[in-house]
Amino acid sequence: MADRPVTKLDKSDVLAGLFAVWDDITALLGGLAEADWQAASPLPGWDVKALVAHMIGTECFLAGVPAPQPDIDVSALDHVRNDIGVMNECWVRHLSAEPGADVLNRFKDITDERRKALTDMPAGEWDAVTLTPVGPESYGRFMRVRVFDCWMHEQDIRQALGRPSSDDQLGGPASELSLDEIAATMGYVVGKRAKAPEGSRVLLELTGPLSRSIRVAVDGRAQVVDDFGGREPTVSIRLDGLQFTRLAGGRPMCSARSQDIEVDGEKEVAAQVIEHLNFVI
């Protein structure tokens, strides 16, 4: 099997998005009442505090800090499905009894530490191949996955608090990088998960502040393409860009935006793609 191509990404672009989403989360959490930290999130078994604990845990892992020992066998919990889930849950349980303000301070401290480490990282390390949630990839790609993960959790927190992102808040580098990361998986979604037949040309048309067009051609294997070479799509799926990210992350749609999904072309293939959009582990 040929080596997979490695994604090389501009460090300053990715870090601008990562630092921006950390700033947005910090601002969102500032001054929350203790009850708000316990608001149920769209992720089963997790409240707002658990989402923040998970982000703290991942950044601690990347900084070389070992996960705390849990008080129970977390792998037995219904919502824990893999080793990453086990590590997440160790941090979630460890921080669950801490006051929200203390958890926020931990978040600020570890993200400040990571900002410095990432800013100082040499280009060679940034481009070096490492193990990532999307397989062996550049460290830069891993950090784009971190932007996506944190940005998705910002939206989860907003949903839990009933403070959905405004159109203006959806602008900016973190949203764009998150969409880039989701778009990069759409070949896998259309080909492997939805099993779109050979010759399919799938157009995902995203509307609203996260508008963009994502095209996937199935030609031997499914891959994201810039255009269909002048040919019409065999399937068109049109929906709000934020709702697309919710479905891609296996989340319920946001009640504050249009939930309409318009489909043209081969309806059965479109239904399969929509049903299998969720690619997250």
From TrEMBL:
One Pfam family, short name: MDMPI_C
One Gene Ontology molecular-function label: metal ion binding
Coiled coil stretches, renumbered: none
Segments forming domain Mycothiol-dependent maleylpyruvate isomerase metal-binding: 20-158
UniProt-listed InterPro entries: DinB/YfiT-like (IPR034660), Maleyloyr_isom (IPR017517), MDMPI_C-term_domain (IPR010872), MDMPI_metal-binding (IPR024344)
Organism: Mycobacterium europaeum
Domain MDMPI C-terminal: 176-271
Lineage, top ranks: Bacteria, Bacillati, Actinomycetota, Actinomycetes, Mycobacteriales
Protein name, entry field: Maleylpyruvate isomerase family mycothiol-dependent enzyme
